[in-house]
Design goal:
homodimer, alpha+beta, L-amino peptidase D-ALA esterase/amidase, Ubiquitin-like (UB roll), 2 domains, eight-stranded mixed beta sheet, 11 helices, 27% strand, globular
């Protein structure tokens, strides 16, 4: 489960560990007009285990199509990532660009083309300025270092207000320690399934790609698939995990203690990244941890949570600090889930505003308003006597969202 | 099909005909704080044929539950409607209030309680100030007149900027003329299925309630179920049709010429009301008539249209007059419909901006920007070589939507 968000600012991103076997590069190659970092690379020392999850959108960007095919092999050595241009809806040229760029990286590394993956994020429908990228690649690779994850995180940002990195260390096997390091970019177009445009997870824990793929799917289902900013799903959503297997221990497999620990670590790292993505929702002032409890099944709880988290009327009420629980009831009622409205209980923080389907009173709403001044808080909806529950993260939508999205391209 | 919206202002509502057998009343009973009309009534001279469609939301307001039961009988004589309070999520008291109010109307008319229907719209979760309504009922009924449809239209408004009335006359049988008169309130919480919070249609064409119900369902499916403002569905959505059968002709039935004419008339009247609802979407600056063509089936076309019409990223781009067709492609890709992105063609008005899935060029986008300055325009998306199509109305979302919805209750 995603832990409760404590505040709306991310923790410092400067203290993250290195992961044995990986280097990171970042540069400004001129895709973004203002000299900001816009090209990054993740390099493994050798071909390593790789797993990926990609957008379910029918319209997939060229780098998504390419990387989906290449991840299938279970081995990869590099991921090149650009921001500022999605290379989506760019036709044959878009695919050609992605192939040429990854081929140049492969040549520089002396490996086969299909050992190199690519991801892109930014504006849809404009040709990639591929020559600028191609010229920047040799320098990008030669300047990659194990401790440059923060630069990489900045290079993949679009409308993000801050970079998003998260990490964890934990013991496995006989007194060995492994690291999981994650990096993501979010802000806008955030919605299951795949909650972020781009996320990458690196680890030195030993495993085959089949286990890595299963662990990644499990962890994403418990984190990124349970949050929303604006209900939109991108053409470019990509989550790639790589394991250098540099730590000398038994490969993780099945569901033994170390395997479970690794999955828990992935959930922690992706949960933290997901939290920061929602915090950084375009123009968001509040992050809501929504708990739907008393549901007949977890699936039912999740459906109700998603309807509430997606509702524009709920999001604007949160933005206006109005405990307008009626809009939550109305959204819940559209989930296709059977529940008795006369049994519903709703809490903002610890303040119960609805009991047995009706308002507790004006005083409770005034107290709820005070809760709603916080940058993040919990909202709990009890549907009835069921035992199942689900947690979901979402943010409000305010004027800044409109400003960003009405003018993003111009 | 909904006709193309010609401009963003409604036509004059002052010229609407009366419908033999119906009277309309309106008063300010003090639900709204500022002395605005907030209580209306539709009175038939006798028990008449009635049909209804109601919200599919699991959370239904008390008047919805009551009217759903009563419409089942196929006969009714009055509809009392209040604005300013939805009487939703109000528990046992809410149902008691609706019963007492309809009972008072029934007493005044000297008919059985279940001949009176009720509809409410406004804030959810606050007890109805039922005494104010009860005291106002005798005057409301005694002052009802055949030509007060405009007052009634104003009495059912909430955040609407203007009243919404539409009518049509057409011949049936042996040189007889019948009238269809519709009235609606919209603005916010507009989404299929049931696109408006409240709509009422009156006619003097002769028919039994079974035909009226079928005709209403058909017409709503072709109009109100094909438009969206914000993707939210209310607890109170209600469409009720009544026929006084005052015109002396064969009752309409089956699918003969007169029956088809009546359904066409209903489509015209509801289509016109639907168009005005979208025009009056909270803070809307632009109304888009979206045409999805070249689809494998009408259902597929409709699914793609709904995804595009609901997308916050599309709505904000429309608001910002940015021909950001990539967002439309991304939204279309989430419809669960199989199509080849490399075959897609997109037009703003007559300007083709995308051909074979890629941008035509900057000049075309500049031309499209000029189209997007219009208060209403057509967007056409051709998915591929299919023969099926669907039309859908939606509006943009701008700062005013946020202002209205962040502060609606306070």
């Amino acid at each position: 489960m995603v832990p409760l968000v404590e505040c709306c600012r991310p923790m410092s991103d400067s203290q993250h560990p290195t992961v044995t076997g990986f280097r990171f590069g970042a540069t400004a190659c001129g895709i973004k007009p203002d000299g900001q970092l816009d090209l990054g690379i993740i390099l493994a020392e050798d071909a390593v285990s790789v797993a990926g999850l990609f957008t379910k959108n029918r319209v997939k960007a060229a780098p998504v199509v390419l990387s989906m095919q290449r991840v299938e092999r279970g081995r990869a050595q590099a991921i090149v990532v650009n921001s500022g241009n999605a290379n989506a809806c760019t036709g044959a040229k878009g695919m050609e660009d992605a192939k040429v760029i990854t081929s140049i990286v492969a040549d520089e590394l002396g490996v086969a083309d299909d050992m190199v993956l690519m991801a892109s994020t930014g504006v849809i429908g404009q040709p990639l300025p591929s020559e600028r990228i191609e010229q920047a690649l040799p320098g990008l690779i030669s300047e990659a270092r194990p401790d440059r994850i923060d630069d990489f995180a900045r290079a993949i940002m679009t409308t993000d207000r801050w970079p998003k990195v998260s990490s964890i260390k934990f013991p496995i096997g006989f007194e060995k320690e492994v690291t999981v390091l994650g990096v993501a970019k979010g802000a806008g177009m955030i919605h299951p399934d795949l909650a972020t445009t781009l996320a990458f997870v690196l680890t030195d824990a030993p495993m085959h790609s089949s286990f890595l793929q299963r662990a990644l799917s499990t962890a994403v289902d418990r984190t990124f698939n349970r949050l929303t900013v604006d209900g939109c799903t991108s053409t470019n959503d990509t989550i790639i995990a790589m394991s250098s297997s540099a730590v000398d221990s038994e490969p993780l497999r099945g569901s033994d203690r170390d395997a479970r620990r690794f999955i828990d670590a992935l959930v922690d790292v992706l949960g933290e990244l997901g939290k920061r993505i929602v915090q950084d929702g375009e123009g968001a002032r509040h992050v809501i941890q929504l708990e739907v409890v008393g549901a007949p099944s977890e699936d039912a709880a999740l459906k109700v949570a998603e309807q509430i988290g997606r509702s524009m009327l709920v999001k604007t009420a949160i933005w206006g600090r109005d405990p307008n629980w009626g809009r939550m009831m109305a959204a819940a009622g559209m989930a296709g889930v059977a529940f008795d409205p006369d049994k519903v209980e709703i809490k903002f923080g610890k303040v119960t505003v609805v009991r047995d389907g009706v308002a507790v009173g004006r005083e409770a709403e005034d107290e709820a308003r005070r809760v709603m001044a916080e940058p993040s808080y919990r909202v709990q909806i009890k549907l009835g006597p069921g035992k199942a529950k689900a947690t979901y993260l979402f943010c409000d939508i305010g004027e800044e969202y409109l400003r960003i999205n009405a003018s993003y391209r111009s």
